[in-house]
Write a structure and sequence with these properties.
59% of the residues lie in helices and 6% in strands. It contains 17 helices and 6 strands. The protein is globular. One of its GO terms (cellular component) is plasma membrane.
């Protein structure tokens, strides 16, 4: 039986890695998900074959409850709510690891007869898992707008409080590792770590949420790997390390895309809630805002040679991806080249726009990364910005006093003309105004993105 379990674990690892390879592009992402899910199924079955698994009724009950909650939630969630679902499900993983660490403490009577490395790995898993659970809960609340999207901070007390909480969690862990048996110690570890998760994520604004989600995902993976080490479970170690490593790499890439260090992001204070702002733009002087209509936008697009669509969270909120694909089909039928400029942190989670456009069957070849898009903008006749804000804000390059100064952006102002589809002149997640809206090249088409694109589609059909 032990040999069979080892063979099944190897099969699961191969499926994990092969599935992860499929995540490199929208075209193969669905297949990659199914392959990785098959790998997890094999790993679960192999684990259940281990001797002394315990109460089968409780195991079946847990699987049933999890499936009853997870499957309908995943099937019914809208693309606009995908970031918060990812944050919530990721947090549940971290919470499960923290609870397993607590159970392990109780079962072993405070790791009394266990090697020191088991206690250290389990306590590490408890701290990181609890941070991930409660931090992900706060991220979910911000994305769901249950909590304010703006930074919530205690000011100068914020960092000292975080240090005190970390010291408390570590102190309890050290006492346990040194032989402490009181269950209040492990509860202290979990509570202090949970407060750290809350206090670290609360001061982080909406603009940094893509980085936060990937960072918490990496934390969950690392905590699972540590728990696998404590439980001597190879599958948990490998799966956790894959998640932790990929999440860490993605976090670093997201931070680079925003030209911000991870410590600066964790320090908080960046990113408002994306609320409605005034119709004036800082630094724009008295330049007027030029508005347009669906009919005029359609004419402008119909006479263009190259069109670059720049998607943002507003496109996701309006569920306008299918209308955008229909518009692109009509333009391409007229011989117009249509491509999509996708910023790495557009939306509210890594890859949000890629997944959204893939849902509408937008060809993968049409999706252009930031560097490729910026090289192409000077040859673009019309840039159609749909709901994107901070990732197109010229202040990132022109205003040293701007909080997003230095962040790489899409150079839509290099194109011959710009049409921005937006509900209002409101600011983005960074909470600052966008000088693009008053640029002489820019025309604003106000309204719901789906309705605006639908209006353009109807006008194109009549041309």
């Amino acid at each position: 039986m032990t040999t069979l379990v080892s063979v099944l674990y190897i099969v699961a690892f191969v499926l994990f890695i092969y599935g992860l390879m499929g995540m490199t592009g929208p075209r193969t992402a669905v297949r990659g998900n199914w392959i990785a899910a098959a790998g997890m199924t094999v790993a679960v079955v192999a684990t259940l074959l281990l001797p002394g698994m315990g109460n089968w009724l409780l195991i079946a009950l847990g699987l049933g409850i999890g499936a009853a909650i997870g499957v309908p939630a995943a099937r019914r969630v809208k693309m606009t709510a995908m970031p918060q679902m990812v944050a919530l499900f990721n947090g549940v993983g971290g919470g499960a690891v923290a609870l397993i660490a607590w159970v392990e403490f109780r079962v072993t009577t405070g790791y009394e007869a266990e090697p020191l490395y088991v206690a250290i790995a389990s306590l590490f898993a408890a701290i990181v898992g609890s941070v991930s659970f409660w931090g992900s809960g706060v991220a979910f609340g911000k994305l769901q707008e249950i909590l304010p999207g703006r930074p919530v901070t205690l000011g100068r007390l914020q960092q000292p409080l975080n240090i005190v909480l970390l010291a408390a969690a570590l102190a309890c862990a050290v006492i346990i590792a040194a032989g402490g048996r009181s269950e209040w110690l492990i509860i202290g570890v979990l509570v202090a770590a949970g407060l750290i998760g809350v206090m670290v994520v609360l001061p982080i604004g909406g603009a940094d949420m893509p980085v936060v989600i990937s960072l918490l995902n990496a934390c969950t993976g690392l905590s699972a790997a540590a728990m696998g080490l404590a439980l001597d479970n190879t599958a948990l170690i490998v799966a956790g390390m894959i998640v932790g490593a990929s999440g860490s790499i993605l976090t670093n890439l997201m931070a680079q895309a925003m030209n911000r260090s991870i410590p600066a992001i964790l320090a908080g204070g960046f990113g408002g809630g994306g609320g409605g702002g005034a119709a004036t733009v800082s630094g724009a002087g008295d330049r007027p805002v030029r508005s347009t209509s669906a009919a005029d936008a359609a004419i402008q697009l119909a006479y263009a040679g190259r069109v670059m669509v720049v998607p943002g969270y507003g496109l996701a909120v309006a569920q306008a991806q299918h209308a955008v694909r229909e518009m692109a089909d009509l333009l391409e039928a007229k011989g117009i080249d249509v491509a999509y400029a996708v910023h790495p942190v557009a939306g509210r989670m890594p890859g949000h726009m890629n997944v959204l456009l893939a849902e509408a069957d937008v060809p993968y070849e049409s999706l252009k990364e930031m560097d490729e898009s910026n090289s192409a903008f000077p040859q673009v006749d019309v840039s159609l910005v749909i709901g994107a804000n901070d990732v197109t804000n010229p202040a990132a390059q022109s205003d040293p006093n701007s909080p997003i100064y230095g962040m790489p952006i899409l150079h839509v102002t290099s194109s011959r003309s710009v049409i921005v589809l937006k509900r209002s002149m409101g600011s983005g997640f960074a909470g600052i105004d966008n000088a693009l809206f008053t640029d002489p090249k820019t025309a604003m088409l106000f309204g719901d993105a789906k309705e605006s694109v639908g209006g353009i589609v109807e006008e194109l059909k009549s041309l």
